[in-house]
Amino acid sequence: MGKTFTWMSMTGFGRGERHGEEISVTVEVRTVNHRFLDLHTRCPGRFLSWESKIRGLVRETIRRGKVDLHVNVREWGKLGARLLVNDGLLRSFIAEARRIREEHGVGGEVTLGDLLAVPDLFQAAPVGYDPAELLWPVAEGAARDALGMLTRSRAEEGDRMKRVLEGAVGRLASIAGEIRSLTAENKEQAVTRFRDRIAGLSAEAGIDPVRLHQEAAILLDRLDITEECDRLASHLSAVESLFRSPGEAVGKRFDFLVQEIFRELNTAGNKSAHAGVSGLVVAAKTELEKVREQIQNVE
Question: Of 223, 247, 277, which residue sits at a domain end?
Fold first, then answer.
């Protein structure tokens, strides 16, 4: 089986959330259309080291569009801290307890419970490792979940846009066929108009009828829209092939073909001497403008 291609919209939203023993990470990502990949990420200050890794995950998923990704972290307790003992205070406490026992005959030994009751004897202090590095798997899971949801939403919108574009291109092909069917009639009308004009000019003194017919033939050739119809059919065929096997960067290639189709329609409309052709060209350009609006949001 051949490779399956998916049309992707550049507009979408995704959200992912993962929980660990020490933190909860939520990632939200939104995308809109853009000519290139324009990536913006926001992480809490102590987790800035995640940004480069998250950017890598985004680039694996998205080729084009403006991306806004936000990471929110909730911490449980004293993340990234360990308990330190105030050794000076501990020695002083034990020495005083010994002195009181010896001088005043107080019995009993110092217990752990006694030590825990001493203010400031135990203090929380940062550990030597980077908590962001240790907790990256939680953030990675949330980011992948968000990007997965984003991909699904972009694919659903892309599939809808593909169906809309297929219908529009089908209508364009039908109009192009009608234009082609009028090429012969368009040329006949031009010939008739020139024949009448030549007959009138030939009666005037000082005009070479042979030269006049030669100039008329050149003008008639310039009014022929057969070549424009051929190129129009070729461009539409290339567009239809994108629906079957879009590959990568389909939006850019589709947009290029739309510009070429506009060019051929403009030329045919300017050259044509047939009112029916002119009307069809206007209808085709109206349909094509709708296609152009849609294709701007295809990756």
Answer: 223
